[in-house]
């Protein structure tokens, strides 16, 4: 669709719009001359704003690559397993440290088997 038509339609709607329209224009090859021409045409038609966004075609293409579903699953599984191992070792270390102490500096922990004793579980 021609961008001139979009400007014309925006100008036709302008008397019925309380505020100025946020107009989006799209140009494949944007040059200063084209942009200036569009702004002056919109201004001549009585639009308050020339355009809200100016979209152009990307200057470069993104690198397209994929992982095989098997590699992606294996990577995710190994990351999850490593996170679980680290968490379990921290919990074991925390429990061992609390057993060795007299309990005055122990951190309260939620026990899923006894929710009544947990303040966070509204027990």
Automatic annotation (TrEMBL):
What cellular component terms from Gene Ontology apply here? ribonucleoside-diphosphate reductase complex
Q: Which InterPro entries match?
A: RNR_lg_C (IPR000788), Rrm1 (IPR039718)
Q: Which GO annotations describe the biological process of this protein?
A: deoxyribonucleotide biosynthetic process
- Domain of life of the organism in this record? Eukaryota
Q: A Pfam family in this protein?
A: Ribonuc_red_lgC
Q: Where is the Ribonucleotide reductase large subunit C-terminal domain?
A: 1-53
Q: Which GO terms describe its molecular function?
A: ATP binding; ribonucleoside-diphosphate reductase activity, thioredoxin disulfide as acceptor
Family to which this protein belongs = Belongs to the ribonucleoside diphosphate reductase large chain family.
| Protein name (database record) | Ribonucleotide reductase large subunit C-terminal domain-containing protein
**Which species does the entry assign this protein to?**
Dekkera bruxellensis (Brettanomyces custersii)
């Amino acid at each position: 669709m021609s961008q001139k038509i979009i400007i014309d339609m925006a100008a036709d709607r302008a008397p019925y719009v309380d505020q100025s329209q946020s107009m989006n224009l799209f140009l494949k090859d944007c040059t200063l001359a084209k942009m200036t021409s569009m702004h002056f045409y919109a201004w001549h038609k009585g639009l308050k704003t020339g355009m809200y966004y100016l979209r152009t075609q990307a200057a470069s293409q993104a690198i397209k690559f994929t992982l095989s579903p098997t590699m992606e699953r294996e990577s995710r599984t190994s990351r999850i397993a490593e996170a679980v191992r680290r968490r379990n070792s921290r919990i074991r270390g925390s429990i061992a440290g609390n057993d060795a102490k007299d309990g005055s500096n122990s951190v309260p922990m939620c026990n899923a088997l006894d929710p009544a004793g947990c303040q966070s579980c509204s027990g």
